[in-house]
Amino acid sequence: VSKLKINVQYPGKYLEAQLMVSEANIGKPVYFTIPVLNFGSEDVQKAKATIRLLTPLNQEVARIETGEISIKAKSQDKLVAEWLPESDGPNKINPGPYYALVTLDYDGRKITLEKRLSIGEVKLLITRIDTTQFRLGEIARFDMQLSNEWNQRISGVYAEIFVLQQDGSVLSTF
Predict the structure, then answer these.
(1) Structure pTM?
(2) SS3 breakdown of the chain: % helix, strand, coil, rounded to 5?
């Protein structure tokens, strides 16, 4: 079985594009690449994209602009933008899922692209462990306080505790 794809030239100006996003981690550059194909019969003089990063609650956390390019008829090029998610400061980004919404403007026309991306990894920090009213030989109750570093609720969380002896060997787990 074979597949034959035929691209027919459109009259005037006509672009097709897609959005590719590199791996995203806090403190490391994220690259947004937009391959653009001109299937039109006319050259595109100015093509530029604006990338808006949104939280799952549609709050904008960043706006990134690409450079401007021109694209000859029946050819292709790409728009590229770089963004650095910060771990602190006024532009702090929490790890979690985000949406990249792209508006590609070319000679008075627009294309909208979107892609979901995750920045960083799911992370919980233990901020406190409390064992009130503990008596040797009885069942002890452990209360844990956690800090969620992800930008959404994490469900199904549980803990496995290892009690170690002074030499580092495991005495008990629960």
Answers:
(1) 0.74
(2) 0, 50, 50
